[in-house]
Specification:
This protein is 46% helix and 13% strand. It is of the alpha/beta class. It has 2 domains: 113 residues, Arc Repressor Mutant, subunit A (Orthogonal Bundle); 186 residues, 3-Layer(aba) Sandwich (Rossmann fold), CATH 3.40.50. Strands 3, 4, 5, 6, 7, 8, 9 and 10 form an 8-stranded mixed beta sheet that branches. Strands 1-2 form a two-stranded antiparallel ribbon. Helix 2 packs across helix 8, helix 4 packs across helix 5 and helix 5 packs antiparallel against helix 14. The protein is elongated and about 70 Å long.
Length: 337
């Protein structure tokens, strides 16, 4: 198979320009920051912004070399931003972005920056945010089909990246259609799996698993991962492109529930796109985080943000293992040190 990373990158990065446009055209962010270098909390207070989208915005700007952050957490504009995106520069290019001020996506980002709440799903006039929309059958069908396009590339790459020879039963948390469970079970003859999904996506998973002729090895359990009991007979839990849909409070809830449901030798696999520990890149992750921030309650997290949480729950975390499409997997094992 040829490498489709560039094709997926276009889609993953499509929201980043609107976030930049909102910051320039509506906040005049870089002129403000040049006058008043500040930490994230002060930026939020000074510009009346919400913490979660501001974190994503600053990460995007750091990855584009428009801001830097010192050891005290103070953000400053770089020479690039000072020369082209501030009011006093003879090369001021803000008007180039001001022409975007009335784009719907720019207005959506300004609203998200102010409130911290997701915008409507792009292209769906009047549609609810992603979390609510996924409860409807028509939207869940179309969205899951889109994610399967990605999963058919990522699933085999994940199966090559992790050694599951010692795993007996894998719980695919919020596993969508089961595309990742199918890939992992096909690559590991001794492995069985359970896809844990809410309605109406659970029906899609049953259909997918049946089409793959894997009904005897992959079960589907219907339920809400936040409120319903988790299957307790699994030694490995997989979160594949799941945690990025939720804020850190809910990420903690999910990881705690996972740890409580696993046996003493259990493992957690977190497969996702990740930021570097300093949250200054990579650019692909920072751009994708802008998209996630606008339509979900989450964002892209750094390896240290997720790794420290797993370590706090008693797991030993291996360095990030690359898979495909700028993603990677953190493998966390309890009882090893």
């Amino acid at each position: 198979m040829t490498d489709p990373s560039a094709l997926y990158r276009y889609r993953d990065s499509l929201a980043a320009v609107d976030l930049l446009g909102a910051a320039i055209a509506h906040l005049d962010f870089f002129s403000w920051l040049e006058r008043s270098p500040a930490d994230a909390k002060t930026i939020c207070n000074g510009l009346s912004l919400h913490e979660r989208p501001t974190d994503v915005m600053l990460t995007l700007f750091a990855a584009n070399s428009l801001v830097t952050c010192d050891t005290r957490g103070t953000y400053c504009v770089t020479e690039l931003a000072r020369e082209f995106l501030t009011c006093k520069s003879p090369y001021d290019a803000r008007s180039y972005y001001n022409s975007m001020a009335d784009r719907q996506g720019v207005h959506d980002f300004l609203k998200v920056l102010r409130t911290g709440k997701p915008a409507n799903w792009p292209g769906k006039e009047g549609e609810a945010d992603w979390h609510a929309a996924m409860k409807t059958e028509s939207f869940s069908e179309s969205f899951t089909a889109a994610m399967d396009c990605r999963g058919r590339v990522l699933g085999p790459a994940l199966s090559r990246a992790v050694n599951l020879a010692s795993s007996k039963r894998l719980l695919d948390v919020a596993g969508g259609s089961g595309v990742y469970s199918v890939a992992l079970v096909e690559a590991n003859p001794a492995l069985n799996a359970v896809v844990f999904e809410a309605s109406p996506i659970d029906a899609i998973a049953r259909r997918t698993i049946s089409s793959a002729s894997l009904c005897t090895r992959i079960d589907v359990v219907s339920g809400d991962m936040f409120t319903d009991p988790w299957p307790a007979d699994c030694d490995t839990h997989l979160f594949s492109n799941v945690l990025h849909d939720w804020d850190l409070v809910d990420v903690d809830r999910l990881l705690i529930r996972s740890a409580e449901s696993l046996p003493s030798h259990g493992r957690i696999l977190v497969h996702d796109m990740f930021l570097n520990p300093d949250k200054c890149g990579p650019l692909a992750a920072a751009e994708y985080s802008a998209l996630l921030m606008s339509v979900t309650q989450g964002r892209i997290y750094s390896t240290s943000e997720i790794g420290s949480r797993l370590e706090g729950l008693g797991f030993t975390v291996m360095p990030l293992i690359p898979t495909a499409l700028h993603r990677g997997v953190l493998v966390a094992t309890r009882g090893e040190g």
